Amino acid sequence: MASQPPTQAQLNLAALAGSPSPRTMRGLRKIQSHQTLSSSPSLASSLLPNTRSSAGPAELSQPAQLDSPVRLRTHRRARSNSDASSQTLLRDGPQQGNVQEALQELRYLVLSTRVEADGDGMSTYRVYLWLILLDIPLLPADEYISLIHRGRSPAYTKIRNDTFRTLATDPLFKRRVTEASLIRLLNAVAWRLHDAKSKHKLKSRPSSSRRREMELLINTPPSIAEEEPSADDMTPSSASNNSLAGSHATNSPGITSESAIYVQGMNVLCAPFLYAARSEAEAFALFHTFITRECPGYIRGAMDGVHRGLVLVDRCLEIVEPKLAAYLFSKGLQAKLPNKILRSFPPLDAKEIIALAVLIVRKIPEPLYAELIGHAK
């Protein structure tokens, strides 16, 4: 007759009989555990997940597998931010070749999730986002080097007067960007703008053949059947000569005869591109495209885009915070008056700034928003 395992009462009596040794206690615990499992046969099966009750025929034919910790981790979301999505979009390109839809998605990702950076503000792919959003083709390094080898531009003295104080209180910027690189880049941009202005002046003047045609028209009396040439009959060269604004240089679409090759403040606009770019040639392409295509009004001699922007700041403040605007204006404090905080900006938090900007934009009327978009053109 097989011996029955000791009951719980017997175990308790054995524990009270004396002070057993550690080996005896381990044996008692083994017996107690064995009794508990043998008295509840369904306990062990209940610990396993009931995966076969709702499985289909294909799943029933497969052996049951327990979920390991590794498998559990694979079902979690790998990253809560969308940096991986932005990087995937940059790496794989637009789906089905739809570039416009991909650009819209890229803008939304940047706006909604920001671009992650390390403690120094550096990101592995921010500069590529800028290159794509500004639609900048690859720039040969030889082109940038040739501009540097031309020596000092006509604006070299003005550039040297500004570069040494560019973000002078920012240690991260000073550690990564040297004054020499700032001088080289601004000097190269000055040469490029100088060449674009020269081309613009030459194209805006009537050519010798065109001048002779104008003299003939002046000296010849008009006939009744004479008609103005239509736009279809005009050649591209004559159309560009007859345009009011003239034709812009190929590489500098926003440059006109009123544009300056350097104005104070261009050094500050240039600083972020040099900080984020991987090379000076890359920063040159970004900065030149930005000031000539996106904000040419900032580099005109009168800096009319800057003045329009300051007026728009006051108008937006009147709409978003009317009480604050009334108080500041009563004290004579307007955006056009520089003060200490504008000369040395505090550290900026992109996440807070984007959230606040999106909140403010909702309160801006459409006509004023359109002025904000085009004030620097």
From TrEMBL:
Biased composition (Low complexity): 37-49
SUPFAM superfamilies: Ypt/Rab-GAP domain of gyp1p (SSF47923)
Name used for this protein in its record: Rab-GAP TBC domain-containing protein
Single GO MF descriptor: GTPase activator activity
Domain Rab-GAP TBC: 120-372
GO terms for biological process, alphabetical: negative regulation of septation initiation signaling
InterPro entries: Rab-GAP-TBC_dom, Rab-GAP_TBC_sf
A Pfam family that the UniProt record links to this protein: RabGAP-TBC
SMART domains linked to this entry: TBC
Positions with biased composition (Polar residues): 81-96, 235-251
